[in-house]
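User: Predict enoyl-CoA hydratase's structure from this.
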Amino acid sequence: MGSVTVNRHDDAPGVTELVLDRPEAHNAISTDHARQLAAATADVAADPSVRAVVLSSSAPRSFCVGADLKERNTIDDDGLRAQRLVFRAMFTGLLELPVPVVAAVHGHALGGGLELALSCDLVVIDETAVLGLPEVSVGVIPGGGGTQLLTRRLGWSRAADLIFTARRLDAAEAYRLGLADRLVDAGAARPAALELAATIAAHSPVGVRNAKRAMRQGFDAPLAAGLDIEDAAWRATAFSRDRKEGVAAFNEKRRPDWPGE
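Assistant:
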């Protein structure tokens, strides 16, 4: 039985939900779990009908508690090196999805679980969320992008505070610091994330994909280089059929029927 479930939502065309579905282990990331999520992101990336993705959890009290330390206790150094390749493929697959990805976080999102959320473009948490990167407390460091993505989100000093102390944040503090983009009532993270994804999916697929590409590629570039990246993305969008349909729909006062090409 798979530990990652892929849901298509007929009421929200273009929205695909990737569900972390290992509730008996609070979605602790085993080698097989990581392999399945990497495969799921590869399938989504290759599907042009997907316009937005939600990453959610079926576990009642957790989003994901990080690496499966019970499995880690059974593998030697060679096994850990082999697992590292699988984990990197999982995080990279999620981070490099060409469409916007929204994390729906409730309960514990710790270590690799928080790094999964950080690999998404937007993070929705509910009031039950507890977030942290506790890796230094067990003799490792955040290795799923945490040292880089958290620093980019929060800045050096706030990221250093959280990583060096391994402390956990409740939902209110996480939202205040900017670790989450939206804070909702307990139990509402998934529906709020799906609603947000549906809003995104209703817009031009070409425009949204190219906007994400420009933002991702230009984020760390010098301004002049970033503006060139933006210009290339603008040209790829402005001369597409989506742009023509968007302008026509605006003038005809109707909803666009995006070609998405």
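The chain has a mean pLDDT of 96.
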